[in-house]
Amino acid sequence: MRVIAGIHRGRHLLGPNSKDIRPTADRVRESIFNVLGQHFDGLQVLDLFAGTGAMALEALSRNAVSALLVDKHLDAVSLCKKNIANLGLEAQSEVWHMDAFAALSRCKTQNRRFELVFADPPYAFQNWGGLWLSLLKEEVLTPEGRVVIERDRRSLLPPLPPALSLQREMKFGDTLVSILLHSPC
Q1: pLDDT at position 185
Q2: In sequence order, which ranges of the chain are alpha helices (DSSP H)?
Q3: How buried is residue 171: exposed, middle or buried, by Cβ count under 10 Å (0-12/13-18/19+)?
Q4: 127: number of CA atoms within 13 Å, CB side?
């Protein structure tokens, strides 16, 4: 694994030793960021189910201003911290060891908002409706904020609430990536 573009382009990221952490492949990450565009200056990024932290670190390499990485697994948290340290991004990064839903609630109490949210839970994850509701209820998305969902292509998503719309979908083998746009009513 490596950083695809930006100031840390080509730098290597540590991968997992466990099969419980499924990092986004370089080619998938590159495609996602090509679709997201080149303008990351000043963005605040939330990486739920962070795993290795590759998605948030890619955004920081492309000039996002800050990233919050969240994972409930201690191995993933440790891996995120090591990758952040290896890139020297401690000042722009924060890592929380907790469940994604608890993190969204904590973000609301801290009045934190994000222009870009990555959500790449384990493929067995089924609570997409709960995730949509938490993202909106906890008010962590800015208007026109985007959510990048990575999931098994065979998993079905419940209908999106009116404040979220599907911008684009891409298939990569067994992986389906959906990019959602937040448009508050």
Answers
A1: 67
A2: 26-36, 54-61, 74-87, 100-109, 128-137
A3: exposed
A4: 10
CA separation for the pair 89, 139 (Å, rounded): 26
CA angle 105, 18, 74 (to 5 degrees): 35
The residues that bridge with 24 in the sheet, in sequence order, are none
pLDDT (0 to 100) of residue 123 = 81
175-182/93-97 β-pairing: unpaired
Secondary structure letter of residue 91 according to DSSP: G
CA distance 78 to 80: 5
Q: What is the pLDDT of residues 67-87, one digit of tens each?
A: 999 999 999 999 999 999 999
